[in-house]
Amino acid sequence: MTIGWNEPVSDGGSEVIGYHVERKERNSIVWHRISKALVIGNLFKSTGLEDGVAYEFRVIAENIAGIGKPSKASEPMLALDPVDPPGQPVPIHVSKNAITIQWTKPEYDGGFKITGYTVEKRDLPAGRWIRANFTNIIETTFTISGLTQDESYEFRVLARNSAGAVSNPSDPSDPIICKDDIEEPRIMVDAKFKDIVLVKAGEVFKLEADVAGQPLPSMVWTKDGKDVENTSKLQIKMTELTAFLINKDSVRRDGGEFILTATNVGGFAKHVFNVKVLDRPGPPKGPLTVSDISAEKCVLTWNPPSDDGGANIEHYVIEKRESSRLAWTNVASELQVNQYQVTKLLKGNEYIFRVMAVNKYGVGEPLESEAIIAENPYVRPDPPQTPEITAVTKDSVVLCWGAPASNGGSEITNYLIEKRDRISLRWVKCNKRNVTDLHFKVSALVPSHEYEFRVFAENAAGISDPSPSSPFVKATDALFKPGPPGNPRILDTTSSAITLAWNKPVYDGGSEITGYILETRLPETEEDEWTIVSPKDGVKGTSFTITNLKENQEYKINVSAVNSEDIRIVVLDKPGPPTGPVNVDEVTSDSVTISWKPPEYDGGCTINNYIVEKRDTSTTNWQIVAANLARTQIKAGRLKAGSEYQFRITAENRYGKSPLLVSECVVAQYPYKLPGPPGTPFLQ
């Protein structure tokens, strides 16, 4: 035990230098000094005590004159472990004159059983603690009565064990106002009602719940947003604290969500009872869509039923009937999918379809479609445009034609081409395979015979009427100028030679290409002063190296395709200069915007890019501003304020660079001047 004491009222005229502590057992008359040395201070811890024995203590003061008289003996105190205080009390019921509190037992009982509790109360805000119970409290709840309405109180609890040890008070409760308690409604149900309630068809199901609240709540049953009413099939029973709902002879539509709602001034509570009646499934979820309708077939699509009858859907059954008949015929059974193609329909007949879901309890209710007529949604296409002759030889012609004005609602899958000899009355089919292009080469013609041609279009609905016939054409070789060689390009250059290549002409003029002629001329010479640089019999391939050229000399080159009738010439050349003048806009102290127009002559091919350069007129050095510019405008920056600049532009195609286009000189400065001086200042 740790004991403490106060200093003597009189120190004898000399300061107290220490204390001596003595103790004795309560039933003994002999005091024993337990402080081995002089105790400095007013506290002393006594050890070596015997558990459960009551001890008394006294203290003797000592000054320079000696040891004084002993103090009065302390109250007898048992040597016991202390009891922990109980838990903080909390209110469990409040009314206008009484409050019921509850607390938890001490964590440690001091080694002896807790035999009772003492409850103390205090009026707020400044009341003192007074005892609230006059009999021993054994439980951990207590009702304090005789309180004043609308007053606030605090409560605390002390524990006592069988050895007589009393704990310190618990933490006081939160302030509690004494007034009638309002308890929000509560609904308590059996655990089986917290999951889905499964009921077989034909059975009775009963829903029940206990209800609590202060004041007593009112109760109502609802389903699908509507109040449930008493009928001969469905009964509702209610008492003050219970609610029942009983349904007899259950069928699938009796299932669903039943909601019990309890309401009072403190609020409301509700519980949802999910009831599923195990029965045949409901109808599949609509609509039953009929799509891709043709004269012989259609496609049905539906969704699984919202109510599966409490069992897995095993399969679906499809039936059909003609609208003029009452009898349904089976289309498909044991379908595992939600889509099916119905076939073997009769063209022009009107049909209605229905789908049923099947579970282990049987076939469910049907979902019906709208009536449909089995007919194609498309018609035969219009006839193609009049065929034109684009090429003729002694045994073949090439035909071209335009697509029909309407494809009849279905894609054109084939064109049929027919021919007729002028000396015959019979039309003969020309193509054995499907033709989807708008041109066709008809072969195996008899030389010198005259023919006319016509074309049919075909889609899913059938073959169109024939196109108007083409004019008669005689099967004979016709020689024309060949087309120009395609895609001319420079492959390599040296100081004295150029290697170039090209593609064969798309059109040979009706006769085989026999070779190519290459010519060159200097840009400054007349346009008709061309020099042939190819062999006398022409170039047989599609590439050639021109030799014996002067270094750094520009050349213009012609490549000509030759057949037995004539030649066609194409010119390969560098582009002309960009078209001036060079426009200079948006001049500032460090940038200008320049623009120009493309060359009037592009050298026979696309301009790849432009090269823009600038020069400070105080020097002779040109600097590149942009080397791969695709547009005809650029903002040139990084100029030195006050300096004068010139710009030049070069166009470039695959054959080389154009002559230069040079701008006028421009000074890099703002287009405005410094402001003039303000007026003479004066006193305001």
UniProtKB/TrEMBL annotation:
GO terms for molecular function: structural constituent of muscle. Residues 1-82, 85-181, 284-377, 383-478, 484-591, 592-671 form the Fibronectin type-III domain. SMART domains: FN3 (SM00060). GO terms for cellular component: M band. The keyword Repeat applies. InterPro entries: FN3_dom (IPR003961), FN3_sf (IPR036116), Ig-like_dom_sf (IPR036179), Ig-like_fold (IPR013783), Ig_I-set (IPR013098). GO terms for biological process: cardiac muscle tissue development; sarcomere organization. SUPFAM superfamilies: Fibronectin type III (SSF49265), Immunoglobulin (SSF48726). Keywords: Immunoglobulin domain, Repeat. The keyword Repeat applies. CDD domains: FN3. This is Fibronectin type-III domain-containing protein. It comes from Cyprinus carpio (Common carp).
